[in-house]
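Format notes (please read before filing issues)

Several people have asked whether sequences and structure tokens are stored in separate files. They are not. Every record keeps both together, in the order shown below: the sequence lines, then the token lines. Line labels are part of the format and must not be stripped during preprocessing.
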Amino acid sequence: MNNPKTTTTSPTTTQQTPTKNNSSVNLGSLTSTQISSGLKEALTLGVTEGVKKLGVTDGFLKNEAVKILMPEKLRIIDTKLRAFGLGSLADQGVKLLNRAAEDAVTESAPIFTKAITSMTITDAKNILLGGDNSATNYLQSKTQTQLFTAFQPKVKASLGKVGADKVWNNLISKYNTLTGQAVSTDLNEYVTNETINGVFKMVAEKESGIRNNSVMRTTSILQKVFGAQDGK
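Then the structure lines:
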């Protein structure tokens, strides 16, 4: 019998915008330490605001940029259930994945903030002069694994809290009964990765805003550091 499993969702890095030749950009008296501090402040602000937007009812579900969909390997289940008139069960399954993310993400800010503050930025100047999401992508490359380890238990608790685990057990049981297959899945890893990736997307959006709109530079360090890259 076929026995499809869910697979680990690979981290998604945000798309970079093309960069110009930065050799002529003058960063003035900015030190690497100052640049690093500015980058970290932008990332921390992105996390704080992103988590606030995501950690409410429909924060994930109604935001198409971060909405958690049926795991790719299980989308055949969605199709089959709808064919048997069980579309509402499939919809409930997806809804509760997002409800779990909305619940769990409220506890993610300290985890992300710790990762940011403890991160050593070894190439601060080039990150500052890089693409719109260079700092976010750097953070993700350096912290994804530790974030996953720290955040996974919280997602597991949230899946149980919102009842997603029971609904999915019922959903998969009905599918197996209808098809004679023996599908099994562990949603914890999938939802953990999708939740983390959702936060990173919000951070990338904030970083891009700070880089391209001086009004969003709400502190002196953001004004000083990101003002210096305006001419790139």
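For reference, the curators noted about this record: Confidence is low (pLDDT under 50) at residues 1-8, 17-21. Residues 32-228 form one domain.
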